[in-house]
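Hey all, quick one. A colleague (J.T.) asked me to put the lactic acid job into the tracker so the inputs and the structure tokens live in one place instead of scattered across chat threads. No bug as far as I know, just bookkeeping. Sequence used:
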Amino acid sequence: MAPHRGRGIYIFDAIGTLFDGSVLVDRLDRRFPGEGVALAAAWRATQLRMTWLRSLMDAYEPFDRVTRDALAAVVGAAGREATDVDLDDLAKMYGELPVYPEVAEVIETLVDLGSTLAILSNGTPAMLMSLVERSGLRERFAVVLSVDAIRVYKPHPAVYRLASDHFGVAPRDVRFVSGNAWDCAGAKRFGFDVTAIDRVGTGVLEDLGERPDRIGRDLRVLIDADRHAGASAMNSRPVGDEV
Ligand code: LAC
């Protein structure tokens, strides 16, 4: 357990929060012309559904395997064919996603403000290391935590407990940030302070009985909340106070 020294502990989800999966559309479109948008959406939805099912079944397989299996299922359901090499190449893209445009600046600013940053993700340790290395931000994160350590996926509470236990703090002292609404719900239920990132402005999709503490269009909402409200007052920022 690493004792926390710093202004605040921010725990970031990876895919859809720091790392932009929309580049997969182009790659899929090149391989399956005209179908990139639909296949990418179906791939992500299937990938996530398989993580939830595997968790309920107590049948964990690592995220790279689930990701490849989901792609094979989606391509098959669309009546298309893909070779093993195609599937491997496309699935590998999940370890090569770029960061969203504002991420580096926000991360640097939070570190300058004295905060401790970490990642908590469904991704495998190797996938996550590849992502953070490519982003050039590896040194900014105190730790990169993968569900692989406990072999159950988000939003199981044991996943969120990995983060608060790692830092030896109460859940309410963790500022969790995710672009996945269901992940926000799971984190909020566990007791984290939660910032939901809603990049396309669709609002919270699932009503799971939990509301985030604040919603922003991108990560800059964190800087605004920190600077304007003061770190200790972040909990008071209302939902819907968007930037
Ligand atoms: C993750 C998924 C939820 O990175 O995007 O954990």
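Adding what we noticed when we looked at it: The longest strand covers residues 116-121. Confidence is low (pLDDT under 50) at residues 1-6, 231-243.
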